[in-house]
# Entry
Amino acid sequence: MTDVVYSDKTLQCRECGADFTFSGGEQEFYAAKGLLNEPARCPDCRSARRSRLNGGGYEMGGRREMHAATCASCGIETQVPFLPRGDRPVYCSTCFDRVRAGAGV
# Structure
């Protein structure tokens, strides 16, 4: 099997018209994921488009919704980025770090 050597390419964004580099590393990533088409938008336009399509969700830089909870270890009121279900313990960030360190994660 031959190793493919990827070299940087300059592409033009179809949205803003700016030139951007499609690096060899990005090309390798695209190939590994089975993506056949080169990106048509520069990184800034891709990010803006994802944000518009996602409604500005947390993954795309939006604000994360926080929920009130009581730490199962120390009992203080805290905020967590998920809705506690009640069937599993919820920890404040200090206790969570301590629990995680003790679990070897």
Observations:
- The longest strand covers residues 9-12.
- The chain has a mean pLDDT of 86.
